[in-house]
Amino acid sequence: MTVWQAGDRVEVIRHGYAPRRDQPLLRPAMAAAIVDVTGCQIRQGTLEGDSGVLRAMVDCG
Hints:
Layout: E1 2-6, E2 9-13, H1 23-38, E3 41-42, E4 48-49, E5 53-59
Antiparallel strand pairs: 1-2, 2-5, 3-5, 4-5
């Protein structure tokens, strides 16, 4: 996964193939990557996208 941050906006891009059985696990893992990499919390209601690209806004205060 690659995590990009610009100000309070964050995007996570997943690389590679993921089988259908793994799909339910990917979005939570990508959201966790946002928190781990940025050290910020995801702003409630801003998480959008799918298991390939996920976007959110974060609160770092």
